[in-house]
Amino acid sequence: xxxxxxxxxxxxxxxxxxxxxxVVLNADTLNYAQKQQIAKQAGYSETAFVSPDSQVDLSVSxxxxxxxxxxxxxxxxxxxxxxxxxxxxxxxxYQFSAKAGLFxxxxxxxxxxxxxxxxxxxxxxxxxxxxxPLLNLTADTLQGQLPIEVLSTGLADLIVPIPxxxxxxxxxxxxxxxxxxxxxxxxxxHLFELNEETAKITASCRNFxxxxxxxxxxxxxxxxxxxxxxxxxxxxxxxxxFEQGRIMNCLSLIKARVSVKEKKIITIxxxxxxxxxxxxxxQI
Length: 284
Hints:
Blueprint: E1 2-12, E2 19-24, H1 32-42, E3 47-51, E4 58-63, E5 68-69, H2 73-85, E6 92-98, E7 101-107, E8 113-116, E9 121-126, H3 128-131, H4 139-142, E10 148-152, E11 156-161, H5 174-184, E12 188-194, E13 203-209, E14 214-217, H6 221-235, E15 239-244, E16 252-261, E17 264-283
Parallel strand pairs: 2-3, 4-6, 11-12, 13-15
Antiparallel strand pairs: 1-2, 1-17, 3-4, 4-5, 6-7, 7-8, 8-17, 9-10, 10-11, 12-13, 13-14, 15-16, 16-17
């Protein structure tokens, strides 16, 4: 069987960088094993498979090279950009289903894709003593005013605040991270380093998810959504811009907006731009 694999870079910065995702349209004839095979052959952190849905606009499944995941932010941005670029859809509002639930998407006239993620859930807290060895750091280094928490806006990530100036120097212990994530039902670790309040970029990020076959990736929409909720909760920030992938020489920009009513988050939106890199047939 031959399928068409589209490679799209999501969360680009002025048309450069971003995080590569695979997109397969008209995937309703593919079974689970075939999707997993395609995702492994593609080799991207996630590949999105698009099928019709009788209740909403689309059904989407997301696969890493090793397994299916419930949701993926950057692959969502990639696939809706591709549909818009191919003129399959126009600017407007859409809804799709995934394993994590229903998600709303807005595509603007200038091709920005904005994804409304699931409302945040705080699932666990961990001490600096527990997390520091995963990053080859001392516990004292991670001791700070902000907590280390597991949050989910579709996928569970451990949010780890890092002292300013240390983020790019961290050399993670991927084997320990993989074991830790497996034991605690977490997708990965999302590290962030806050910038000054006056800076355009709210925080710089790194993400490690070796449990699902991703040692490090250059843009993680779901985790940045969780981080936006975390920073709103602890620092009362509602408009955020994150950069990720700096150390990978693949800079990405992820925008986030948190809406609050009566001290409760009612919506979390994450968005950005994308670029089609190539389309090619793939034999499976």
